[in-house]
Amino acid sequence: MAEALQASSVLSSLSSDGAEVELTSPVWQEIYLSGLRSWKRHLWRVWNDFLTGMVPASPLSWLFLFSAIQLACFLQLDPSLGLMEKIKELLPDWGGQHYQLRGLLAAALFASCLWGALIFTLHVALRLLLSHHGWLLEPHGSMSSPTKTWLALVRIFSGRHPRLFSFQRALPRQPVPTAQESVRKYLESVRPVLGDDAFDHAAALASDFLKLQAPRLQLYLRLKSWCASNYVSDWWEEFVYLRSRGSLMVNSTYYMMDFLYVTPTPLQSARAGNAVHALLLYRHLLNQQEIPPTLLMGMRPLCSAQFEKIFNTTRVPGVEKDYLRHLQDSRHVAVFHRGRFFRLQTHSSNGLLSPRALEQQFQEILDDPSPACPLEEHLAALTAAPRSMWAQVRESVKTHAATALEAVEGAAFFVSLDSEPAGLTREDPAASLDAYAHALLAGRGHDRWFDKSFTLIVFSNGKLGLSVEHSWADCPVSGHMWEFTLATECFQLGYAADGHCKGQPDPALPRPQRLQWDLPEQIHPSISLALRGAETLSGNIDCHVFPFSHFGKSFIKCCHVSSDSFIQLVLQLAHFRDRGQFCLTYESAMTRLFLEGRTETVRCCTREACQFVRAMEDKKTDQQCLALFRVAVDKHQALLKAAMSGQGIDRHLFALYVTSRFLHMPSPFLTQVQSQQWPLSTSQIPVQQMHLFDVHNYPDYVSAGGGFGPANDHGYGISYIFMGENMITFHISSKKSSTKTDSRRLGQHIEDALLDIASLFQAGQHLKCQFRRLGEKSGYRRGSLSSKTVDPKVPTTSTNF
């Protein structure tokens, strides 16, 4: 998502004066601290497993083993082969009357040791199984006998009902690729976008690097991989995110949309009540580890570490670097409405408040006529300011309004009740979607607390949205939460016939607490400066969203092509038509197959993709283009699988660069790599919980996905989501200040490229003609936006139409 922009700013974040001082610490010390942090997290998870009744085997399994040993002793059998007698001898002699107690204690100790050994063996066996990645190389849609055997063993060793964190101690560590292989892949990736002279220069720098710096840097990096849980993730969080000094707004945030065509209720307070209740239900399941672990392709568990900081988390600004503050619990949310802040309690002595009680409190906030206090209305603009500036001003805010600041930063999450409607409208579907995306990504610059892990945005017409800060986790984690929230608040909690939450109001419920900001007048210039900067940044972002409904995942499946690879080649063709040249392309791929893995870059602009695009532009025959298309798809799939299996390029080169800075070993090659720009940044938003939605019968009840800002001043940010089987929604962003980009223009090129590539297949040859006839009749090429209806059997009371 937004990580491409952050990744491209690593060089500047390591060039500030503060960063230079910090990197004078010895690399040995940094490796030691990485290992220490990893072991602290490991021990905390062990303790947390005990508290929640998992270690990870059920305590009942220990009781069963102890009972079996006692039964064997009753039958005068010794399953310990004499070990229990030796344990008895080591126990204190309490006299003959306690001989039976000593026997029970010896049996319990033996059972505990045997039980621990069995669990350790289970972890080791499962880790060895999960270290196998041969299944990734299987052809799409088929599975060999060895892979079936491997899958059966994984299921056997995984237990019957694994919980969210059950696999954490069994996941393998991310491997460190060889420097030679990463450099070779890097040179291969930049060859299509560099001229001969520039490529020769890059190759010469790479050759010098492999001879001079690489061996020593690799040695330290391998040492770190043995000590820390993940050799790159902690540095990635620190240097890519927390040390970045720019604004969080747009640069380190992304957004998630509501249902595209459906709004379950037009009542703002009711939608807020159900959504907050659903979010806190998710938090409860998370705390109890009752959320099933995510399984890739239904068989391979992914790391769940990022789920730990979804709630109760704030990114606190610092002069040199930020830090993430995470609380174990929080029983309130912070609410913003018309320039005022409120503390809204989410729990009573009986537990979580009902949706109707939450709606009642939100309605009291909406009905509150009191005006915003001086300096309060635009205070949140400071969270959109450069981080060093906000860190300095925050000290003054903390001194004069510590209680109010703690109420916001210590909240479970932030809620913004917007005074304007949003979402798709019949009158102007294209413009309304673009405005909806812009409101979620940037807002007005002062109505989001960008430091919070996420902000729930509820518009005046009941439409929802999410604004997420990127440093604590990646999009699939927040997307998993958002899918649960939408499904729960719409299908399980539901609404009454009048649009209110189900249930009755509680007249004894206390009113939300209005937060008081007793701020000095001296911070007014800082707020004004931050607001101007936020408004400038917001006004420069050009968002465009369009749903493509002429075909979707089902058609791509019929073509026997990976849906992600299909779209990536569509984007290459569309971008070439838009800019007339190829460029470095960033696609985010997850590395959660490994412990504490985050993401890796797939460099989609390959030689094979360029050959296919040139063939399309040169009007080669369909057979020739299709043959080149399949070669390019195979190349993209190989790169994607390499990235997922820890054999990518960019994270390894990034870690080598950070190591070189700690060792004060300048590397022109690594500096060149880290200074590269990403004119095209792309990401797919996966639908992970298909069981929550009936996408076949009700495809409208899937989130319309989300988007992020461009990673380059003259580039594009593109995300896409497959909504059901027959629709793809694209989110495009660029900067209005650029004379080279235009989000709507690129959207039209994407639409044309989708149809052109689909027409290469026999099943899609009719689509282009059908599409053109539809455009001639409607006068609007994306007229399908306004042709959707809502099935009355689905539990909804209102739509935007």
From TrEMBL:
An annotated Gene Ontology molecular function: palmitoyl-(protein) hydrolase activity
Limits of the Choline/carnitine acyltransferase domain: 175-751
Keyword Cell membrane: no
Region (Disordered): 780-801
Main subcellular location: other
Enzyme nomenclature, EC number: 3.1.2.22
GO CC terms, sorted: AMPA glutamate receptor complex; axon; dendrite; endoplasmic reticulum membrane; glutamatergic synapse; mitochondrion; postsynapse
Entry keyword set: Acyltransferase, Cell projection, Endoplasmic reticulum, Fatty acid metabolism, Hydrolase, Lipid metabolism, Membrane, Transferase, Transmembrane, Transmembrane helix
Regions of compositional bias (Polar residues) in chain numbering: 784-801
Signal peptide: none
Topological type in the membrane: Multi-pass membrane protein
Transmembrane segments: 104-126
Pfam families reported in the protein's UniProt record: Carn_acyltransf, CPT_N
Subcellular localization: Cell projection, Axon; Cell projection, Dendrite; Endoplasmic reticulum membrane
GO terms of biological process kind: carnitine metabolic process; fatty acid beta-oxidation; regulation of postsynaptic membrane neurotransmitter receptor levels
Top EC category: hydrolase
Active site, renumbered: 470
Coiled coil stretches, renumbered: none
Catalytic activities: S-hexadecanoyl-L-cysteinyl-[protein] + H2O = L-cysteinyl-[protein] + hexadecanoate + H(+)
Similarity remark: Belongs to the carnitine/choline acetyltransferase family.
Function (record text): Palmitoyl thioesterase specifically expressed in the endoplasmic reticulum of neurons. Modulates the trafficking of the glutamate receptor, AMPAR, to plasma membrane through depalmitoylation of GRIA1. Also regulates AMPR trafficking through the regulation of SACM1L phosphatidylinositol-3-phosphatase activity by interaction in a malonyl-CoA dependent manner. Binds malonyl-CoA and couples malonyl-CoA to ceramide levels, necessary for proper spine maturation and contributing to systemic energy homeostasis and appetite control.
Protein name: Palmitoyl thioesterase CPT1C
Record organism: Cricetulus griseus (Chinese hamster)
